[in-house]
Amino acid sequence: MKNELKTKKKIEKKSTNVLGWIATVLTPLAILMIVIRVLITPAFAKIEYKMPGFPEDPYGFTLEDRLTWSEPSITYLVNSKGIEYLQDLSFDDGTPIYNADELSHMEDVKHVITWMRTVISVLMLALVWITYVVVKNGKRLEMLVAFKRGAWATIGLIALILVFVTLAFNQLFTWFHMIFFDSGTWMFYTSDTLIRLFPMRFWQDAFIAVGVLSVIISILILLLTRQKPEVSVKKKSKPKKR
């Protein structure tokens, strides 16, 4: 009976450790993807276009033009519409704002983002389930430690990414596209609308924004998982009656 109890405790401890480390690994992924999703909004473009030093379009787009055309472009990535949503957009002279290659790339980007949104849901469900199981087994402290490790891992990963953003952003940008898109499908002329709306500075700042927001969330997790020191209160002994 004692051996069975010991074996059961060992299994519970091992499973708790495994689940804890899974939560640690999933935490940075969840944070990064959630932040990326939050930034896929016309509001970010509005802020970015008004940043000091943001490059002007050498082919004539004004700030208003960029705001006008970036809004439906970004909205398309997260709505349920087909590519005709962008295909129907045209300049005053009737010229479509995007050519066939640009439209094809936007479809690819939408597929990646749709996939990412599904992954976010799976990650969040997994983290909620792991937390429930571990806490239910009376291992709340282990779960706090797991999330704390995940937060520190996120900060470390962001630090590495920001080093690349500072020293070799073009290479980082290339690697990113090589992972998610077929070769040659994401290269465009500087005169193409996609580059005019979203020049390299836009993406560089987007990477930095993802990093900053991810670090802020990680710090919040570290604060929330901070363990309060236990204060032992000594009971005063009652004076003996004489």
**Order of helix and strand elements from N to C terminus:** HHHHHHHH
Q: Tell me the number of structural domains.
A: 1
Largest sheet: none
State Rg. 25 Å
Return the average pLDDT rounded to an integer. Answer: 91
Q: Which term fits the overall shape?
A: elongated
- Note the quaternary state here: single chain
Q: What is the structural class?
A: mainly alpha
**How much β-strand is present in the residues?**
under 5%
What is the total tally of β strands?
0
Low-confidence stretches: none
Compute the number of helices.
8
Work out the helicity level.
Answer: over 70%
What is the terminal separation in angstroms?
52 Å
Please give a structural write-up.
With 242 residues, this protein is mainly alpha-helical. The protein has one domain (2-224). It is built from eight helices and no strands. The protein has helices at 2-39, 42-49, 63-78, 84-87, 100-136, 140-180, 193-197, 200-224. It is elongated and about 85 Å long. 16% of the residues are buried.
